[in-house]
Amino acid sequence: MESDNNNGHDNVTIYRSANSVIYRGPCLVKSVNVAGDGANADCQVYDGDNDKAQQKAHIEALSGTSFNWLPGSGTKFQYGIYLVVNAATTKVSVTLEPVTV
Question: Cα angle vertex 31, ends 29, 34, to 5°?
């Protein structure tokens, strides 16, 4: 499933199941949830627009389970968010708060 959901709040939640740029620009990442839907899940989270940027997290979950990374009150990303997802069966949701400079 790929959709964006704002729910009228400052936080934005974005769902992905493939490598992709999630957001461009500075933001606070509030949570990253990784779920294995039929296979083990693996996701790397980068501060930038590709996998050459600084890696901020590596998250894994077993098939049929999920792991929710909650980095306190938010982890600052300077350039944006890029995800590397190991398989189409890996489902990732990212909740972020855009930061204006």
Answer: 125
β-partners of residue 3 are none
Query: pTM to 2 decimals?
Result: 0.85
Give the domain ranges of the chain: 4-98
Per-residue buried b or exposed e for 52-85, using 16+ beta carbons within 10 Å of the residue's own CB: ebeebbebebeeeebeebeeeebbebebbbbbbb
* pLDDT 10s digits, 51-94: 999 999 999 999 999 999 998 889 999 999 999 999 888 999 99
Decide if 80 contacts 24 (C-beta within 8 A): yes
Please give the class, per CATH, of domain 4-98.
mainly beta
Sign, CA torsion 65/7/4/85: negative
DSSP assigned state of 87:
-
Angle at 64 between CA 63 and CA 66, to 5 degrees: 90
